[in-house]
Amino acid sequence: MTDTSVPTLELNNRTRIPQLGFGVFRVDPDHTAEVAGNALEVGYRHIDTAAGYRNEAGVGEAVRASGIPRSDLWITTKLANGDQDRPEDAFQASLDALGLDYVDLYLIHWPLHSKGVYPQVWKTLTAIAESGRAKSIGVSNFQIEHLERVIAETGVTPAVNQVELHVEFQQRELRTFHAEHGIVTEAWYPLGGGSISEAPELQRIADSHGKSVAQVVLRWHMQVGNIAIPKSNHRERMVENLDIFDFELTWDDMQAIAALDKGEAGRRGTHPLKMG
Ligand SMILES: NC(=O)c1ccc[n+]([C@@H]2O[C@H](COP(=O)([O-])OP(=O)(O)OC[C@H]3O[C@@H](n4cnc5c(N)ncnc54)[C@H](OP(=O)(O)O)[C@@H]3O)[C@@H](O)[C@H]2O)c1
User: Fold this and answer.
1) Residues labelled catalytic
2) Residue 23 dihedral angles phi and psi, to the nearest 5°
3) Ligand 1 pocket check for 60: Cβ under 6 Å
4) Any domain includes 243
5) Ligand 1 center to residue 21 CA distance, Å?
6) 10-residue block means of pLDDT along the chain (276 residues)?
Protein backbone atom coordinates (compact mmCIF):
# COMPACT_ATOMS: atom_id res chain seq x y z
CA MET A 1 0.00 0.00 0.00
CA THR A 2 1.32 3.42 -0.85
CA ASP A 3 -0.42 6.70 -0.35
CA THR A 4 0.78 10.25 -0.62
CA SER A 5 -0.71 12.19 2.30
CA VAL A 6 -3.06 10.04 4.36
CA PRO A 7 -1.44 8.32 7.35
CA THR A 8 -1.91 4.59 7.88
CA LEU A 9 -2.72 2.61 11.01
CA GLU A 10 -1.30 -0.82 11.70
CA LEU A 11 -3.79 -3.65 12.16
CA ASN A 12 -3.29 -6.74 14.30
CA ASN A 13 -1.99 -8.70 11.29
CA ARG A 14 0.64 -6.01 10.57
CA THR A 15 -1.08 -4.69 7.43
CA ARG A 16 -1.60 -0.93 7.31
CA ILE A 17 -4.93 0.75 6.54
CA PRO A 18 -5.28 4.36 5.31
CA GLN A 19 -6.75 6.20 8.29
CA LEU A 20 -9.06 8.32 6.15
CA GLY A 21 -11.25 6.59 3.59
CA PHE A 22 -14.36 7.27 1.54
CA GLY A 23 -17.72 5.69 2.40
CA VAL A 24 -20.40 4.96 -0.19
CA PHE A 25 -23.46 4.24 1.99
CA ARG A 26 -26.53 5.77 0.29
CA VAL A 27 -24.60 6.49 -2.89
CA ASP A 28 -26.98 5.59 -5.73
CA PRO A 29 -25.75 2.35 -7.36
CA ASP A 30 -26.23 3.98 -10.78
CA HIS A 31 -23.86 6.79 -9.83
CA THR A 32 -21.38 4.94 -7.65
CA ALA A 33 -18.80 4.43 -10.41
CA GLU A 34 -18.77 8.19 -10.98
CA VAL A 35 -18.80 9.20 -7.30
CA ALA A 36 -16.16 6.65 -6.25
CA GLY A 37 -14.18 7.56 -9.37
CA ASN A 38 -14.16 11.19 -8.26
CA ALA A 39 -13.01 10.15 -4.80
CA LEU A 40 -10.10 8.19 -6.28
CA GLU A 41 -9.24 11.08 -8.59
CA VAL A 42 -9.03 13.60 -5.76
CA GLY A 43 -6.77 11.29 -3.76
CA TYR A 44 -8.72 8.78 -1.65
CA ARG A 45 -7.18 5.32 -1.72
CA HIS A 46 -9.57 3.60 0.70
CA ILE A 47 -13.21 2.91 -0.17
CA ASP A 48 -15.78 1.45 2.23
CA THR A 49 -18.75 -0.34 0.67
CA ALA A 50 -21.04 -3.23 1.68
CA ALA A 51 -23.12 -5.88 -0.02
CA GLY A 52 -26.10 -4.16 1.59
CA TYR A 53 -25.37 -0.88 -0.19
CA ARG A 54 -25.93 -2.63 -3.54
CA ASN A 55 -23.15 -0.56 -5.09
CA GLU A 56 -20.12 -2.86 -4.96
CA ALA A 57 -20.21 -3.15 -8.77
CA GLY A 58 -19.85 0.63 -9.10
CA VAL A 59 -16.89 0.63 -6.73
CA GLY A 60 -15.21 -2.10 -8.79
CA GLU A 61 -15.87 -0.15 -11.98
CA ALA A 62 -14.29 2.97 -10.47
CA VAL A 63 -11.25 0.97 -9.35
CA ARG A 64 -10.68 -0.43 -12.83
CA ALA A 65 -11.30 2.91 -14.57
CA SER A 66 -8.87 4.70 -12.24
CA GLY A 67 -5.83 2.83 -13.47
CA ILE A 68 -4.48 2.97 -9.91
CA PRO A 69 -2.50 -0.19 -9.06
CA ARG A 70 -4.63 -2.52 -6.97
CA SER A 71 -1.87 -2.71 -4.36
CA ASP A 72 -2.24 1.05 -3.78
CA LEU A 73 -5.92 0.71 -2.89
CA TRP A 74 -7.78 -0.41 0.20
CA ILE A 75 -11.24 -1.84 -0.45
CA THR A 76 -13.55 -2.84 2.40
CA THR A 77 -16.87 -4.62 2.01
CA LYS A 78 -19.30 -6.24 4.44
CA LEU A 79 -21.45 -9.33 4.83
CA ALA A 80 -25.15 -8.44 4.52
CA ASN A 81 -27.40 -9.37 7.43
CA GLY A 82 -29.54 -11.64 5.27
CA ASP A 83 -26.47 -13.69 4.36
CA GLN A 84 -25.30 -14.79 7.80
CA ASP A 85 -26.42 -18.34 6.96
CA ARG A 86 -24.23 -18.39 3.81
CA PRO A 87 -21.18 -16.21 4.47
CA GLU A 88 -18.81 -18.05 2.14
CA ASP A 89 -21.17 -17.77 -0.85
CA ALA A 90 -21.99 -14.16 0.01
CA PHE A 91 -18.29 -13.29 0.22
CA GLN A 92 -17.67 -14.77 -3.22
CA ALA A 93 -20.69 -12.84 -4.57
CA SER A 94 -19.15 -9.63 -3.21
CA LEU A 95 -15.82 -10.39 -4.90
CA ASP A 96 -17.70 -11.09 -8.15
CA ALA A 97 -19.71 -7.86 -7.88
CA LEU A 98 -16.55 -5.88 -7.20
CA GLY A 99 -14.70 -7.74 -9.96
CA LEU A 100 -11.76 -8.23 -7.61
CA ASP A 101 -9.89 -11.34 -6.57
CA TYR A 102 -9.39 -10.09 -3.02
CA VAL A 103 -10.63 -7.40 -0.66
CA ASP A 104 -8.45 -5.67 1.88
CA LEU A 105 -11.00 -5.92 4.66
CA TYR A 106 -14.15 -7.99 5.09
CA LEU A 107 -16.52 -7.16 7.94
CA ILE A 108 -19.58 -8.78 9.52
CA HIS A 109 -21.97 -5.83 9.08
CA TRP A 110 -24.06 -6.35 12.25
CA PRO A 111 -23.86 -8.96 15.02
CA LEU A 112 -27.61 -9.82 14.84
CA HIS A 113 -27.57 -10.57 18.54
CA SER A 114 -30.91 -12.45 18.67
CA LYS A 115 -30.04 -14.71 15.76
CA GLY A 116 -26.83 -15.49 17.60
CA VAL A 117 -24.85 -17.14 14.79
CA TYR A 118 -22.15 -14.44 14.64
CA PRO A 119 -19.44 -16.60 16.31
CA GLN A 120 -19.98 -19.24 13.59
CA VAL A 121 -19.94 -16.53 10.91
CA TRP A 122 -16.68 -15.20 12.38
CA LYS A 123 -15.16 -18.69 12.03
CA THR A 124 -16.01 -18.61 8.33
CA LEU A 125 -14.35 -15.20 8.01
CA THR A 126 -11.19 -16.58 9.58
CA ALA A 127 -11.17 -19.30 6.91
CA ILE A 128 -11.68 -16.67 4.19
CA ALA A 129 -8.71 -14.74 5.59
CA GLU A 130 -6.59 -17.88 5.58
CA SER A 131 -7.43 -18.33 1.89
CA GLY A 132 -5.96 -14.87 1.18
CA ARG A 133 -9.15 -13.55 -0.44
CA ALA A 134 -9.65 -11.07 2.41
CA LYS A 135 -6.34 -9.64 3.58
CA SER A 136 -7.86 -8.57 6.90
CA ILE A 137 -11.13 -9.37 8.66
CA GLY A 138 -13.16 -7.50 11.20
CA VAL A 139 -16.61 -6.70 12.46
CA SER A 140 -19.04 -3.82 12.58
CA ASN A 141 -21.53 -2.69 15.19
CA PHE A 142 -20.18 -5.22 17.68
CA GLN A 143 -20.51 -4.43 21.35
CA ILE A 144 -18.08 -5.57 24.01
CA GLU A 145 -20.02 -8.77 24.73
CA HIS A 146 -19.95 -9.73 21.03
CA LEU A 147 -16.23 -9.04 20.77
CA GLU A 148 -15.51 -11.04 23.92
CA ARG A 149 -17.49 -13.97 22.58
CA VAL A 150 -15.82 -14.20 19.16
CA ILE A 151 -12.38 -13.84 20.71
CA ALA A 152 -13.13 -16.52 23.33
CA GLU A 153 -14.63 -18.96 20.84
CA THR A 154 -12.09 -18.65 18.02
CA GLY A 155 -8.96 -17.13 19.52
CA VAL A 156 -8.97 -14.70 16.58
CA THR A 157 -9.37 -11.02 17.41
CA PRO A 158 -11.10 -8.81 14.80
CA ALA A 159 -8.66 -6.34 13.24
CA VAL A 160 -11.28 -3.59 13.18
CA ASN A 161 -14.67 -2.79 14.70
CA GLN A 162 -16.56 -0.27 12.56
CA VAL A 163 -19.12 1.53 14.73
CA GLU A 164 -21.15 4.71 14.91
CA LEU A 165 -18.78 7.32 16.35
CA HIS A 166 -18.80 11.10 16.12
CA VAL A 167 -18.20 14.08 18.37
CA GLU A 168 -21.56 13.70 20.13
CA PHE A 169 -21.18 9.93 20.49
CA GLN A 170 -17.56 9.19 21.25
CA GLN A 171 -17.84 5.52 22.38
CA ARG A 172 -15.24 5.87 25.16
CA GLU A 173 -15.88 2.49 26.83
CA LEU A 174 -15.79 0.59 23.56
CA ARG A 175 -12.65 2.44 22.42
CA THR A 176 -10.93 1.49 25.67
CA PHE A 177 -11.83 -2.17 25.12
CA HIS A 178 -10.52 -1.94 21.55
CA ALA A 179 -7.24 -0.42 22.74
CA GLU A 180 -6.80 -3.19 25.31
CA HIS A 181 -7.30 -5.85 22.62
CA GLY A 182 -5.44 -4.30 19.68
CA ILE A 183 -8.64 -3.66 17.71
CA VAL A 184 -8.63 -0.54 15.54
CA THR A 185 -11.72 1.66 15.86
CA GLU A 186 -13.36 2.67 12.61
CA ALA A 187 -15.96 5.47 12.76
CA TRP A 188 -19.15 5.41 10.74
CA TYR A 189 -21.22 8.61 10.67
CA PRO A 190 -17.85 10.34 11.23
CA LEU A 191 -19.51 13.67 10.39
CA GLY A 192 -22.65 12.79 12.31
CA GLY A 193 -24.37 11.18 9.34
CA GLY A 194 -25.68 14.22 7.54
CA SER A 195 -26.01 16.99 10.08
CA ILE A 196 -22.69 17.99 11.57
CA SER A 197 -22.85 19.08 15.21
CA GLU A 198 -23.73 22.75 15.49
CA ALA A 199 -21.85 23.19 18.77
CA PRO A 200 -20.43 26.74 18.76
CA GLU A 201 -17.16 25.36 20.11
CA LEU A 202 -16.57 23.56 16.82
CA GLN A 203 -17.09 26.73 14.80
CA ARG A 204 -14.74 28.62 17.11
CA ILE A 205 -12.06 25.95 16.71
CA ALA A 206 -12.59 25.86 12.95
CA ASP A 207 -12.22 29.65 12.71
CA SER A 208 -9.05 29.57 14.79
CA HIS A 209 -7.43 27.20 12.28
CA GLY A 210 -8.97 28.67 9.13
CA LYS A 211 -10.71 25.34 8.51
CA SER A 212 -14.32 24.16 8.21
CA VAL A 213 -16.21 22.38 11.00
CA ALA A 214 -16.16 19.18 8.90
CA GLN A 215 -12.37 19.41 8.67
CA VAL A 216 -12.04 19.95 12.42
CA VAL A 217 -14.25 16.94 13.14
CA LEU A 218 -12.30 14.69 10.76
CA ARG A 219 -9.00 15.96 12.15
CA TRP A 220 -10.29 15.08 15.65
CA HIS A 221 -10.91 11.50 14.46
CA MET A 222 -7.34 11.33 13.17
CA GLN A 223 -5.86 12.64 16.43
CA VAL A 224 -7.82 10.23 18.65
CA GLY A 225 -6.71 7.35 16.42
CA ASN A 226 -9.93 6.42 14.61
CA ILE A 227 -10.27 5.43 11.00
CA ALA A 228 -12.88 7.74 9.44
CA ILE A 229 -14.77 7.12 6.21
CA PRO A 230 -16.78 10.27 5.37
CA LYS A 231 -19.13 10.14 2.40
CA SER A 232 -19.96 12.96 0.03
CA ASN A 233 -21.57 13.06 -3.39
CA HIS A 234 -19.81 16.37 -4.01
CA ARG A 235 -16.30 16.56 -5.36
CA GLU A 236 -15.49 19.82 -3.56
CA ARG A 237 -16.46 18.27 -0.23
CA MET A 238 -14.38 15.18 -1.03
CA VAL A 239 -11.40 17.50 -1.45
CA GLU A 240 -12.29 19.46 1.70
CA ASN A 241 -12.58 16.28 3.78
CA LEU A 242 -9.17 15.10 2.60
CA ASP A 243 -7.49 18.43 3.32
CA ILE A 244 -6.91 17.85 7.04
CA PHE A 245 -3.25 17.00 7.23
CA ASP A 246 -1.79 20.51 7.28
CA PHE A 247 -2.98 21.54 10.75
CA GLU A 248 -3.18 20.13 14.24
CA LEU A 249 -5.79 20.52 16.96
CA THR A 250 -4.32 21.77 20.22
CA TRP A 251 -4.70 20.05 23.58
CA ASP A 252 -7.34 22.68 24.45
CA ASP A 253 -9.20 22.00 21.19
CA MET A 254 -9.17 18.27 21.94
CA GLN A 255 -10.48 18.88 25.46
CA ALA A 256 -13.28 21.10 24.15
CA ILE A 257 -14.32 18.44 21.63
CA ALA A 258 -14.15 15.70 24.28
CA ALA A 259 -16.71 17.72 26.25
CA LEU A 260 -19.22 17.50 23.36
CA ASP A 261 -19.77 13.76 24.00
CA LYS A 262 -23.39 13.10 24.94
CA GLY A 263 -22.86 9.42 25.61
CA GLU A 264 -25.77 7.16 24.60
CA ALA A 265 -27.99 10.23 24.10
CA GLY A 266 -25.73 11.21 21.20
CA ARG A 267 -26.40 8.05 19.22
CA ARG A 268 -28.08 8.83 15.88
CA GLY A 269 -28.17 5.48 14.12
CA THR A 270 -29.63 2.08 14.99
CA HIS A 271 -28.58 0.53 18.30
CA PRO A 272 -26.76 -2.76 17.54
CA LEU A 273 -29.14 -4.75 19.75
CA LYS A 274 -32.12 -3.42 17.82
CA MET A 275 -30.87 -4.62 14.44
CA GLY A 276 -32.12 -8.07 13.44
N1 LIG B 1 -21.15 -0.27 9.31
C2 LIG B 1 -22.28 0.38 9.34
O3 LIG B 1 -23.30 -0.10 9.87
C4 LIG B 1 -22.35 1.73 8.70
C5 LIG B 1 -23.47 2.55 8.91
C6 LIG B 1 -23.48 3.81 8.33
C7 LIG B 1 -22.40 4.22 7.54
N8 LIG B 1 -21.34 3.38 7.34
C9 LIG B 1 -20.17 3.79 6.54
O10 LIG B 1 -19.72 5.05 6.99
C11 LIG B 1 -19.70 5.96 5.89
C12 LIG B 1 -19.94 7.35 6.38
O13 LIG B 1 -21.21 7.45 6.98
P14 LIG B 1 -22.36 8.33 6.37
O15 LIG B 1 -22.10 8.50 4.91
O16 LIG B 1 -23.65 7.72 6.70
O17 LIG B 1 -22.25 9.70 7.18
P18 LIG B 1 -21.16 10.87 7.26
O19 LIG B 1 -19.99 10.56 6.38
O20 LIG B 1 -20.96 11.18 8.68
O21 LIG B 1 -21.97 12.07 6.65
C22 LIG B 1 -22.29 12.10 5.28
C23 LIG B 1 -23.17 13.33 5.07
O24 LIG B 1 -22.42 14.51 5.34
C25 LIG B 1 -22.45 15.36 4.21
N26 LIG B 1 -21.09 15.93 4.07
C27 LIG B 1 -19.96 15.30 3.64
N28 LIG B 1 -18.91 16.13 3.67
C29 LIG B 1 -19.37 17.32 4.13
C30 LIG B 1 -18.76 18.56 4.38
N31 LIG B 1 -17.45 18.74 4.15
N32 LIG B 1 -19.53 19.59 4.84
C33 LIG B 1 -20.85 19.41 5.08
N34 LIG B 1 -21.49 18.23 4.86
C35 LIG B 1 -20.75 17.19 4.39
C36 LIG B 1 -22.84 14.47 3.04
O37 LIG B 1 -23.59 15.20 2.11
P38 LIG B 1 -23.28 15.17 0.51
O39 LIG B 1 -23.13 13.75 0.09
O40 LIG B 1 -24.48 15.83 -0.06
O41 LIG B 1 -22.03 15.97 0.34
C42 LIG B 1 -23.72 13.44 3.69
O43 LIG B 1 -25.05 13.91 3.84
C44 LIG B 1 -20.77 5.41 4.96
O45 LIG B 1 -20.70 5.94 3.67
C46 LIG B 1 -20.50 3.94 5.06
O47 LIG B 1 -19.40 3.59 4.25
C48 LIG B 1 -21.31 2.16 7.93
Assistant:
1) 53
2) -95, 150
3) no
4) yes
5) 11
6) 75 98 98 98 98 98 98 98 98 98 98 97 98 98 98 97 98 98 98 94 98 98 98 98 98 98 97 92
1 lies in a domain? no
Residue with CA at minimum distance from ligand 1 atom 39: 232
- How would you label 7-24 residue by residue, b for 16+ Cβ within 10 Å and e otherwise? ebbebbeebebbbbbbbb
Indicate whether residue 232 lines ligand 1 (CB < 6 A).
yes
Q: Which residues make Cβ contacts (< 8 Å) with residue 117, sequence separation at least 6?
A: 84, 85
The answer as to whether 65 is a domain residue is yes
With respect to residue 135, please indicate whether it lies within any of the assigned structural domains. yes
Burial annotation 248-265 (CB, 10 A radius, 16+ → b, else e): ebeeebbebbeebeeeee
What does each C-alpha distance from 144 to 58, 119, 140, 141 come to in angstroms?
34, 14, 12, 10
CA of 120 to the centre of ligand 1 (A): 31
